[in-house]
Design a protein that fits this description.
Blueprint: H1 20-24, H2 42-60, H3 71-76, H4 99-111, H5 115-141, H6 143-154, H7 157-163, H8 169-189, H9 192-208, H10 214-229, H11 237-261, H12 267-276, H13 285-299, H14 302-316, H15 328-359
Helix pairs in contact: 2-5, 2-6, 4-5, 5-6, 5-7, 5-8, 6-14, 8-9, 8-10, 8-11, 9-11, 10-11, 10-15, 12-15
Length: 360
């Protein structure tokens, strides 16, 4: 017996659900591949597990070369050596929130203090990013894009290097990807557990790095952009905004203790003032970009090139093809709107920091 979609769900010529919710992201249960409507194949899971194992091998290779070398690594790994400063490096809050240092401290207590246990949180986060990125890319863009994203991340020499360093970059990027995946699914499904998880993971990233608010800005940008890319028929704007509000509320509750703890050390205004030293403005942007390119070139190795070749081979071997024709007319307004949202989010944070500074 043929099942029919409810009358309120718009369908295309083939009977597929073409509502904005269905087009924006797959449901939590059932088909998750937007390209062909099929469930993840066995070959996909074999590929994902195999690539994750390869990525783990690359990040764990030559463990004797893993060592604490960067000054900031020492700051994050020195909790147990600072008993007179409440087990925290002096002014550590200016470097990063206490999330990663606390995890490293627990690793030292349970497994013993060493270079490897100091870097273990970054290693685990770097390995976890591979399957998470694959799940996100497959949900949003289809299986070929998921395979390409997984391979590019697995063989990225820069990501391999930073996964072997006790810094906040890799743990936060993993939180960012997971938060975006959950936010996307939560906005579409509205399932309370997913909305709760999205807020908690966003807060976890914020406890790791002060840029942890970024998933919220990206989620809001998506809400603004999707109606511009899709026909505004039955656009669920109000539902998306309500669900985004729930995610923001959960994040705010979970991150509030961090800002309360900063009150004893000058508040967030002290952190913002410290970060302001690294802002060079438009006049210094070009020189900073050139310096960054030089650093990236120094990091590059044949490993990334291999990853690009393998990713190209995987994507070219699939018969599916992507075209921009359907969205190119709406792409510029969507990009502009997303940029305005990002600028507005940053401006709001600056105003909050300024208000805190005036209050202090």
């Amino acid at each position: 017996m043929k099942h029919q979609l409810p009358s309120f769900v718009p369908t295309g010529p083939s009977g597929l659900n073409t509502s904005p919710d269905a087009l924006a992201s797959p449901p939590l249960a059932g088909p998750s591949d937007q390209s062909n409507g099929s469930s993840p194949s066995r070959s996909w899971w074999i590929f994902l597990v195999t690539t994750t194992v390869v990525a783990a091998g690359l990040r764990l290779a030559m463990p004797s070369g893993i060592a604490i070398e960067h000054f900031d690594e020492g700051v994050y790994s020195s909790n147990l050596w600072c008993p007179d400063d409440d087990y925290s490096y002096p002014d550590r809050h200016l470097y990063a929130p206490p999330g990663l240092p606390r995890v490293i401290e627990e690793a030292h207590l349970w497994l013993g203090a060493s270079d490897f246990t100091s870097i273990a949180p970054s290693l685990l986060a770097g390995i976890a990013l591979i399957p998470l990125l694959g799940l996100l890319a497959r949900d949003w863009l289809g299986e070929p894009a998921g395979r390409a994203a997984v391979l590019l991340a697995a063989f990225s020499d820069i990501h391999v290097l930073y996964s072997r360093i006790a810094l906040t970059d890799v743990p936060w990027i993993t939180c960012l990807v997971l938060a975006l995946w959950l936010i996307g699914r939560g906005l579409v499904s509205g399932h309370p557990p997913v909305l709760l998880a999205a807020g908690l993971v966003t807060a976890l990233g914020w406890w790791t790095k002060y840029t942890g608010w970024l998933p919220l800005a990206i989620g809001l940008s998506g809400i603004v952009a999707v109606p511009m890319l899709l026909r505004p028929i039955h656009s669920p704007w109000q539902n998306w905004l309500k669900r985004m509000g729930a995610i923001v509320a959960v994040t705010a509750i979970a991150i509030a203790p961090l800002f309360v703890s900063l009150a004893d050390t000058g508040g967030y205004s002290a952190v913002a003032a410290n970060h302001a030293r690294y802002i060079v403005g438009l006049t210094g942007w070009l020189s900073s970009a050139a310096s960054q390119v030089e650093h990236m070139a120094a990091f590059e190795s044949p490993l990334t090139f291999v990853g690009v070749l393998v990713a190209c081979w995987f994507t070219s071997s699939t018969p599916e093809r992507f075209t921009w024709n359907a969205i190119r007319r709406r792409l510029l307004p969507a990009v502009a709107a997303s940029g305005l949202v990002a600028i507005g989010s940053f401006s709001a944070l600056v105003l909050v920091a300024a208000g805190l500074a005036l209050r202090d």
